[in-house]
Every structure is written in C-alpha cells, then in structure tokens.
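Obj: model holo form, ligand = flavin-adenine dinucleotide.
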Amino acid sequence: MAAQARPHREIIVAGGGLPGLSLAVALRRAFGEAVRITVCDPAFARAGGPDLRAYAVAAGGRRMLERLGVWPAVAAGAQPIREMVITDSRLSDPVRPTFLTFAGEVEEGEPFAHMVEGGALLGALRAAAAEAGAILDPTPVRAAVPESGAITARLADGRSLRASLVVAADGARSRLREAAGISWIGWSYPQSGIVATVSHERDHEGRAVEHFLPSGPFAILPLSPGGSLGHRSSIVWTERQADVPALLGGDREDALREVERRFGLTLGALALETPLAAYPLSFGIARRFGAPRLALLGDAAHVVHPIAGQGLNLGLKSAAALAEALTDAMRLGLDPGGPDALQAYERSRRADTLAMGAATDGLNRLFSTDVLPVRLVRDFGLGLVDRLPALKRLFIQEAAGLRGAQPRLMRGEAL
Ligand SMILES: Cc1cc2nc3c(=O)[nH]c(=O)nc-3n(C[C@H](O)[C@H](O)[C@H](O)COP(=O)(O)OP(=O)(O)OC[C@H]3O[C@@H](n4cnc5c(N)ncnc54)[C@H](O)[C@@H]3O)c2cc1C
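Output (holo structure tokens):
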C-alpha cells in the first residue's frame, strides 16, 4: 500500500543480509514506486553453502516480519521457545543442576521467541524484497561518495548509482563504514561460536537450554521436528579459539562425541545433521551510526556476543528504526539522506545497542570462567533470580525485544 506518490527517491542498500533486506521490504511496502531501492550483494549470485545458523527471532522481530508479510513464509518451520533452562557446571560434573528457568510467553499465546533457520529466513526475505519491487543486484559496492545533494555508490563493475542515501548493511567488517572514516570501538573474544544442527530421539518440547561451561556457553536451541532421529536442535557452542581447529579437523564421529559430552543424554541418542561450522566472536559498536548521506545498519553498526541470541534482533530493530526515521522524513517532504533523518535514527538506537553490547559482554565474562568464588556468586545470583517472578518477567520482556521504546514495526504497527 503506497503511502505517498512523490517525490521520487533513490536509496541504495549495500548488503542483502537479514537487516538490509528487511529495510528494503519495509520501505517498498510503505512507499511503492515512490522509492526506488537497490540492494547490492554479491551473495545474490552465489549458490554458496547454506547458513547453518538458526536464529532466536524475538517477539518484537516476529511482529515486524508479520507486518512485512514475511512471517507466513517461515511460520510452518518456526519452533516456538516455550521454556528456557540455565545450568552452570563443568564438563566433568555428573549432574547439571538447573539454576534458573523461564516460561516463555510475553502475551497469552505469544512465545517470547521462535527459532528460525537462517537459510529459510534469508530466502523468504529475498523473495519478499523482489516481490515488493526492490532491485536485487549481485554487484558489490566499492565506495560511497557524498556530493552536493546526493551520494554516488561506485559498484565493482564500474557503474555509478546516484541516490539520496546509501545504507551500509555490509556486515561487521563494513568496507563502507571504514571508507567513511567512522571509527569502531570493540574487541575480539578469544572464542569462536561453533554451530551445527543435531537430531535426537526425544522431543525437546520447545525447551532451550544454556549450559554455562568454563570455555563459554553451550546453547541447545529447539528446532521444528525432522532429521534422522525425528527431533532437531541447533547448537551454538562457544569454545576457546585455540581448541577450535582440532574440534573441526576431526572426523564426524569425533565431532559427535565432543557434542555428546556437552549436550548430555537427556534427549536420547544424538546424530549430527550438519558439519560443525565456526564463527569468530567479537564485540563492537560504531562511534557514529551515520555520515553524510550514509547510514550504518546491522552488524556494520553493532556486533554483540551471541550468548543471548540478540545480534540479529538488534539488527532487525535498527532496520525498523531506520525505516521509521526515513518514512517520517519523507512524509514531511524532507530528504531521507538529510541530517534530521539520520540523527533521529541514531538517537533511537544508540542507548539500546550500547546497553545490549555491555550486557552480553558482561554475561560472557561472568560465565566463561571456572574460578570457584565467581561460580559460587553467579550461581547464588541465578538462584535468587529464579525466585523473583517479577524480575523474570522483566528479563523475558527484554529478551523478547519489547522493553523500552519500540519502533512502530516492532509493535506490529504499520510504518
Ligand atoms: C555463532 C553465531 C550465532 C548467532 N545466533 C544469533 C541468534 O540466535 N539470534 C540473533 O539475533 N543473532 C544471532 N547472531 C548474530 C547474527 O548472525 C548477526 O547479527 C546478523 O547475521 C547480522 O546480519 P548483517 O546482515 O548485518 O551482517 P551479515 O550477515 O554479515 O551480512 C552482510 C552482507 O553484506 C554483504 N556484503 C559485504 N560486503 C559488501 C559490499 N561491499 N557490497 C555489497 N554487499 C556486501 C555480504 O555478502 C553479506 O550478505 C549469531 C551470530 C553468530 C556468530
């Protein structure tokens, strides 16, 4: 439904990951032909390996995807998280006591998050962007050069595209962020996130489990039924970087044994449905979320540890906030690449992303240690939280992405 027929605007999104595509769908659905959107990403041309990650899409993100008409395409394969269980133990401990459990609804019948497989979500967003009329171009953007009243994106094949705004959604190592001279505050963790899909004999009943082990968290996240043993989970296994080559270099049997040691046997026999894949982990936030006629989006603006499964959710929230700032500007007849729109975007996202970055960094440091006094204090803290229902409700609202100011799309409203 086109909200406004003119003036004609041109926006280029460099990076067709989940946040970049969400922004393109949102703007095309709101403005139709009045906004020409080109999403450039060399990944459009690659058959490539599938993204083995599965995402915990929080309630706010699901409401947004519903509003954009994308959710129905992934709903059948999405697994609601009905409960979260947190344990704190060593690999050698014979039992893993549960310290904290959360029941998983934010509203009656609305789970705080769903697990969705990365490949399915990306496919659905690409299809929605194409259907909404965004141009999907498989050419990388090499540079974005602001000039008077416009910005020119220089593409790798020699073409130059003029636009009101370039959105750099080109990932954590954003070339466009660097070229714009925006500095990055952050660090790498001496850890990698190993991901894989595992099948098991018994039903997980929608339960997500986070085992805090000394090398970092080992998360078991429920997926929809399937796999060779009938039920599936995704694992995100944080491991010391130095140990990762040996874990990935062994054969499938060795890998399965290592997974079994951490996963435990509560869901019966296990089988690996995919190879193990490792992602280096880091934390970082851009000093500014924009430069003249350039807005940073997704991991190009902020990267957090996956301990709380919030990286993509932050990216979707930023896409919703940027879509809102651009929409509000264009409805007033203002330039979407002008400073007012970009400042409104930055104001709406900065505090939230900093808070989430600090929280995930602190949690990772607190739990990736085996020092006994620290373990005792954190286990006492977990036990305490477990007995405070009001605090637990607060945490669930936070994990669902529903605390604090929400962009309209995250509330499930139209732009
Ligand atoms: C192990 C692990 C588990 C995770 N689990 C979760 C989870 O459960 N929930 C959650 O919310 N988040 C999770 N995250 C975080 C999440 O994966 C990221 O936040 C999210 O993928 C960021 O998307 P993005 O599009 O910004 O960046 P990317 O996914 O890196 O995409 C960037 C895109 O830009 C393209 N590109 C690069 N350079 C150019 C260029 N010059 N021109 C054009 N295109 C370009 C690339 O081809 C790519 O498609 C996890 C992360 C890790 C590492």
